[in-house]
Amino acid sequence: MRRPRRSLSAQGLFFLAFCTLGAPSLIVGAGCSGEAQASPPTHTQPEEAANTPPQGLAASPSAGSAAAQPGLAPLRYDPNDSLAPLITRVQPSVVSIQTRKSKSGLFSRGSSGIGSGFVISDDGLVVTNHHVVAGNDKFEVHLQDGRRFEATVVGSDPQTDVAVIRLTNAKQLPIVSFGSSEGLLVGDWVIALGSPMGLEQTVTRGIVSAKGRGSLGLYEDGYADFLQTDAAINPGNSGGPLFNLAGEVVGINTAVGGHDGLGFAIPSDQAKIVIPKLIKDGKVTRGWLGVGGRDEPPEFGAMPTKGAVLGEIHAGTPAAAAGLLAGDRVLEIDGKAIDDFDALRTRIGEYGPHDKVTLAVLRSGKQHQINVELGARPGPNSLVRTPAGVVPPNSAPGPKPTPPSSGAGGDLYNGTPARLGVEVRETPEGVVVERVLEGGVGHRLGLRAGDVIERVNGKGISSVAAIIASLESNRSQAKVEVRRGSGRHSAVISAG
């Protein structure tokens, strides 16, 4: 059963765990967390995917024995005595990735950094994080046995922060296998391996602290649904594996908190969907319904109602063609329960364009089965969707700065680009709110999915750019006027 997802907007608390070399400080979020690049990584041409998945994506051994490489007997050990047998088995497959960005101009300086990764095929496919490879053009990979390889990027997905690289002229490498993150329970032991602060082959251990943390607001348009752990994860751990006690990869270490005991990893089940697409096509093209969401907070003392309530159904979209209506509550997709709109969006994103799905929909007290052929998710120039803000249509996905704050020295937006905490879509009728992020400025203003934004800070609105310009004109206040149905509403919020 899917765990409840929590929407967190915590840019001030969470950082990506990639270490930039030569930084003047080792403080998390300062010297070793400025790795994210707006520019995409340098890609090799995608190779034709094999009919069979890489060995690391194949079925894993059952729990209770350490994951074995092909031809090796399962390793049995007692974790109450020592984890050494497990570490000895998996450590040869964990790598350190030295990255370098070449000089881009006469007076520019190149940059370098350190991340982590793990081998999933004996001919040199390595999984790491998107933000480890983004913007870099040279990669040197170090194995535990002392071998070093150059590497090129096979594919990368900013929305889940997963990337695959290929080692040059690699053969007969030791590999690890993926396990199931869905089967993890809060309290299960996990082990993190990587190169924190450049210290290669470092091992830490902890427990699964929570599941279903959402994308933590770290990425524009993010799809990651993080696991939380108290295993120590530091800058340089990015891209390294998080193992269960069977030696299976159950997560990809990604983000560190601003406090001890807060670390985050991409669930293996999500990575297993993305990785084959990266190997085959070099990118991920996601399916799309074309709907907005509508939040329905439960009454005090009442249990939340499961399902995703649809807001606006956009014209000319797969949702409109299938006959979905505003107010429909989506309970399941292909038999898998849907808790909320975030879960709906994530699940649809696991499919591709032209995939056919069956939705279990509750409408007027009756349940219906509705078949939908998904479309291709529009690019940022045609659909503006940001989990925690309004951004220009040409903004690249990537880690976002500090979220809105109502008490940051009189600056409502805390020095960042103007942000309302909403997802919007430009339509012929105007700029329409698709979803309102709980706890954001838009939520506090009372904005709802389906609202048409007409004026911001007294200025007429016809585009996303106009919203940004109006908000930037007065960063200590946001006054928003919207058209809602046949009426009009306005609200104002000021920095405290």
UniProtKB/TrEMBL annotation:
<keyword id="KW-0732">Signal</keyword>
<comment type="similarity">
    <text>Belongs to the peptidase S1C family.</text>
</comment>
<keyword id="KW-0378">Hydrolase</keyword>
<dbReference type="InterPro" id="IPR001940">
    <property type="entry name" value="Peptidase_S1C"/>
</dbReference>
<feature type="region of interest" description="Disordered">
    <location>
        <begin position="34"/>
        <end position="74"/>
    </location>
</feature>
<dbReference type="GO" id="GO:0006508">
    <property type="term" value="P:proteolysis"/>
</dbReference>
<dbReference type="Pfam" id="PF13180">
    <property type="entry name" value="PDZ_2"/>
</dbReference>
<dbReference type="InterPro" id="IPR001478">
    <property type="entry name" value="PDZ"/>
</dbReference>
<dbReference type="Pfam" id="PF13365">
    <property type="entry name" value="Trypsin_2"/>
</dbReference>
<feature type="domain" description="PDZ">
    <location>
        <begin position="414"/>
        <end position="486"/>
    </location>
</feature>
<dbReference type="GO" id="GO:0004252">
    <property type="term" value="F:serine-type endopeptidase activity"/>
</dbReference>
<feature type="signal peptide">
    <location>
        <begin position="1"/>
        <end position="38"/>
    </location>
</feature>
<dbReference type="Pfam" id="PF17820">
    <property type="entry name" value="PDZ_6"/>
</dbReference>
<feature type="domain" description="PDZ">
    <location>
        <begin position="278"/>
        <end position="365"/>
    </location>
</feature>
<dbReference type="InterPro" id="IPR041489">
    <property type="entry name" value="PDZ_6"/>
</dbReference>
<feature type="compositionally biased region" description="Low complexity">
    <location>
        <begin position="53"/>
        <end position="74"/>
    </location>
</feature>
<dbReference type="InterPro" id="IPR036034">
    <property type="entry name" value="PDZ_sf"/>
</dbReference>
<feature type="region of interest" description="Disordered">
    <location>
        <begin position="375"/>
        <end position="413"/>
    </location>
</feature>
<protein>
    <submittedName>
        <fullName>Periplasmic serine endoprotease DegP</fullName>
        <ecNumber>3.4.21.107</ecNumber>
    </submittedName>
</protein>
<feature type="compositionally biased region" description="Pro residues">
    <location>
        <begin position="394"/>
        <end position="404"/>
    </location>
</feature>
<keyword id="KW-0645">Protease</keyword>
<dbReference type="InterPro" id="IPR009003">
    <property type="entry name" value="Peptidase_S1_PA"/>
</dbReference>
